[in-house]
Each structure stands twice: as structure tokens, then as C-alpha cells.
Amino acid sequence: MRVLVAEDERDLADLVGMGLRRHAMAVDVVYDGAAAAERLAVHDYDVLVLDRDLPGVHGDEICRDLVQARSPTRILMLTAAASVSQRVAGLSLGADDYLPKPFDYEELVARVQALGRRVQAPLPPTLQRHGIVLDTNLMQVTRDGRHLRLSLKEYAVLEVLMRANGGVVSAETLLEKAWDEHTDPFTTVVRVIVSRLRAKLGDPPCIRTLPGAGYLL
């Protein structure tokens, strides 16, 4: 899942970004509205964690523009204002969810995960294919009953491949969904992670490479 965190309190923004990465999400962090608008114009994000009171370009404007453009990006709006009327106002702009500050971090993670599931085709929380069972709630993977110890990137790549349900996933799509904007698109990082994932999944081999197209499970 690709997430953009737009929050002007730098320490809070960095902590939120760091925490979401621990849940195998690819996260970009910006601290003002202009930078948020720029990133949204370049990348396809699944979820935007949006501080309503951003400097530069206001969060309300960013939310309104995304809704008018019919963007599939889901919006979780954050604000220090906690009154019912203010929450209603935020949701009326088109935000998908609203969380007042201060918030419980685990609740934030759960809300981001729930919004991310709404972007993609509806699938059960437990994905199964070729003897592989991936539990998206517990972030646990087994194959034929054997527990697999995967890195966060290996887990993220496997989840994207399993969600494709047998379809081909390009290296560019894997970069977009499992890595942040600081990753060099010309590196071999995707090939390296897929190679490690193949080794951990074991026999029989279940990840195919289609030259010039991508990978499929």
C-alpha cells in the first residue's frame, strides 16, 4: 500500500510515517500543502493522511481537488478540532474518514489499513494461493503450514502479487506500491527482493518472471 502523510508538525509526521512503514506500507512524508499537491500529481497513492490545517495550500483545498478529480486516493483527515460540526464539515468536503488529534496510534493504523482495502478490489483479510496463506491483519505468512519469516519489503511484494490473483504485476507497479519516492527506479531492488522471496517460499517455485512484462504468482 502506498501512503502520503501530509502534516506540518514535523515530529508527528515523521513518527506517523515511521510507524506506518513498520506495517509494510510505502510512505512518503511532506510538511506543507504545496508539497502534498505536487506529490499527488506525480504518484498514485492509496491513502492520504491529511492534516486539515496545512500551511501553503490548505488541507480543505487538497481534499476538494482530489474529490473533484475523482481520484481513487482515500483521504483520512486529521485536525486538532474535535467538535461534531467540524468533523461533519471535513467529511462534507469528501474526506473518507476523520480523526481528531491527539489520536491513538493503533487506531490511525487500523483506519489507514481499512481505507487501503477500499481502494483495491474487495478481498478477504486472508489471501490464499499455491499453499501460501497471507494474513493481512496479523502480517503473517505460511506455506503448506510452514511459517515464513519475511522482511517488510518481501511481505509487501508478496501481498501485491497475491492481490493480483494470478495477474501479471510489472516491476514499475511493485515499485509504486511497495517502495517510497526515494527509491531509484533504475535499481535492481525489485529483482533482488523477488529473488529472496522465491528462496523463502521454497518448492515448488510459484513466482514466474515474464520478460518485459513483470511477475505473476
UniProtKB/TrEMBL annotation:
Residues 124-217 bind DNA. It holds the Pfam family Trans_reg_C. InterPro entries: CheY-like_superfamily (IPR011006), OmpR/PhoB-type_DNA-bd (IPR001867), Sig_transdc_resp-reg_receiver (IPR001789), WalR-like (IPR039420), WH-like_DNA-bd_sf (IPR036388). Keywords: DNA-binding, Phosphoprotein. Residues 2-116 form the Response regulatory domain. GO terms for molecular function: DNA binding. Residues 124-217 form the OmpR/PhoB-type domain. CDD domains: trans_reg_C. The modification 4-aspartylphosphate is found at D51. This is DNA-binding response OmpR family regulator. It comes from Kibdelosporangium banguiense.
